[in-house]
Amino acid sequence: MFSVILYGRNVSHGYNLHKRAAIGLNALAELMSDSDDEILFVDDNTPDDHPTFPEAIHDTLTDKAKSVMRILRVRPRHRLDARRHAHQAVLESQSRNVALRRSNPRNRWSCFATTDTLLVPRNEGRSLSDILDELPDGFYRTPRFDLPKTLWEAAFDRGDPNGNLAKLRHWPTRFHLDRPRDEAGAEFQVMLRDDLFAIHGFDEAMSSGGSSDSNLAARLALHRGAAGTLIDKVLGYRCDPGRAGTAKGMNDRDRVVDVVTTPYLPAQADRWGWPDLDIEEIRLDRGTSYERFFAGVGAAIEPARAPYDATSLESHLVHDLTYDLAHTLPFVCDQVLTYPKHSGVMFVGARADFLRRFSTAWRGMGFTGPILVPQECAGLPIDGQGVETGPFVELLRRAEIFIFEFGLATQREDEPVRTGRKITPPDDACLKVVESLFRRAAALEAETRPEGQGLPRRFIGVNVIYNYYWPLFTDHIGANITPFCSQVLAGDPRAVTPKKARFPRLRRRSMA
Amino acid sequence: MTRLSEAILETWRRAIDRLGSGCIQHLSEEEGGATALYLSARASARAGDLEKAAQQFAALAEIAPTLTAGLEGHGETADRLGQSALARAKYDVARRLRSEARRGAPDRPFVLRNRGPFPAEIAAYTSVLLSVKDRALPYVARGNALLAEGRARLALLDYGCALSLKPRHFEIAALKAEALVMLGRYEEALRAFDTALAARPNDAEIYSGRAIACLALGRLGAADADWRRQSELLPPERAAARACVSLRMADYEAALPLLQRALEKEPGDPYWRLYRLTSLRRLGRSVGQPELERMADVAWPGPLLALHAGHLSADEALTRADNQGRRAETLFQLGVIAWPRDRAEARRRWEEVAAETSPALIEHAAARHELARAGS
């Protein structure tokens, strides 16, 4: 019957966003009674190494919310076409159009809201699906009232959407909440999906800030005539973010509303919502990231026989490059899991057993892209499924993620680690190749990116903490802070430092 | 010298336009008791006198029971007075009336697909224009509401003001041209359409308007060229719109599959069934009795479907046609039914359509094409 379209990003936007969103998403799901109903959440511009926003809060969502939600992940790289708005964290119009284009065509209605909207049918026994089913074609609005922060933050249980909706049936009169928000986009709007397609969706020349709603409403009013009201059927409430940060980049009303003279946007008629882009769809009720992780890592390593193991950080062991593969592999998989499944990963390393196990995990996690192994890395098994080999310089342009593994080629899996093991000549030969290729990859990363890849590619370093390769890796890669035990660092290549600036940096390091 | 005189004339025209536009609210209030009562009730509600507003809206419902804005106003007032059941009833009636109002032909511009009256919109945009005079949108929106109500002269004033603010917005020039078509000023309309099309050569709806202006001026070939171009430009998913274009050219072979698709998408629209029946008849194909009898009981165009089924006589059908548009539809269908047995009768019916009705009607254009083909 209807698709609710929401958008957002997995970054900090107010300390209470997670609660507001869970309250809103769970309440919306409760109002859906038609099997085609859906919540489309466009996760826009979350960094590739983060999960999407709904995945990050999935444990606070009800089963119903998880079952009706489809997450469309718009990667940072997808936004390169929208260069005009490159500075914006989230592209409101584009996000909504991406979802609209991909919404269930069997649904007659499309609705747009913020994640913290609660809709309360005035007839308690009716779902929003029931209400919309009876509506004649048209364009409808209903006011949305603000809820003071304390009410929803302190009194709402995000796991009890029906209880929350019940509270909203008597709070408005008790606390005089029934004063509509009067800013742009403050109403809950219900539109025909066909109408939105006819007028070419939201204007993608608009930036974020709510005025794209006003622009759309002005255009729809031209297209279909005056909006009808749903005030007798359903009321909207919004959890006031209270002390959260303010929105940036609000549109100028003159520019977005008063210039409207036609419902249509012929300039974007063929490209609104990026119809040709293959957008990943993520579900919270099946094929979850945990399920993928378990399938991949579970296939690659056996469970440990001991409840825990010990390791040593003593300084004299800094030259010992042995590490526990079974312990490290889950942390490496953790770094790649959020990337697109068709990504190609370059593996440069010394340990053959690492590549074999990683390859099993990679396929098990559902990745379909190749594992690229440079032919310069002698001794690595290249006969595994999906493993491709070739000259380093050729593979460099195909890799979307890099893994550099600094282990000992001669280490056996059952060998104890960090006991003062020496580097043998064969180990040394392998490590020299890995180091050399690492330096070249980091230096050439920007100029060897695959076509359409505007952003830096991720470098994952294995066994690069508390040993000789730690400074090497962090000199070239702006790595995250990770505990020693994981053995793994990851980040983007640092911008190449001009020669003049190198000396003070070295001096600071030596002083430290 | 010529340029100077043109500039002076243009300035003068704009001044007249602005003056005229400012008078619209005054005219609206003068012209009908219903509109005035609606505005008064709305003012009472805004002032907080809900009891008085409720009485006024109730009185309004007596004299204008189909005025949806009035019903919605009554609903809101009742709701605020705690009379939720009454409010719901009023809102439901307003929604039902809106859904029953047939929208304009889907191949025509968006403005002409909407159906009035729009007193609330006109009042709202007039209020905006009292304080904001330098924005095009309120003029365009009010002009659209007026045009959709058939008040082309007032709409023309608004479009003139909007164009003086945004002379390079060719969509407004096209709207102005539509108002000129409605006023029967076809030569002027043609010039305005030409200007709009020079800037927007791929706008399907502008071709639709220019084709009608050409048809009205007797340039059937030019009209057909525009309709063919419109048909090329319309996206495949707008089957109903493309079907209407084909029907205007009396190209039933092209219209038939498109009507079938329109019917699949909107099975409840009796017009697609009627036009499909028309096409089948004109192509000499058989039509089953159940097909003929389906939807013959709807208020309109049910009588035309009943006419095809043989349940209604020509005179009865013409009696049921309660406005000029419906009369034209009836005459056209009488021609379609008569054609296989009495071509002179069919031609006579179509000549009546061509002589009496607006060239904007599908039936008018189709009748003109039928007559041209029949050699009349």
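The interface with chain B takes residues 122, 135-138, 197-198, 218, 221-226, 228-229, 231-233, 254, 257-263, 266 of chain A (CB under 8 Å).
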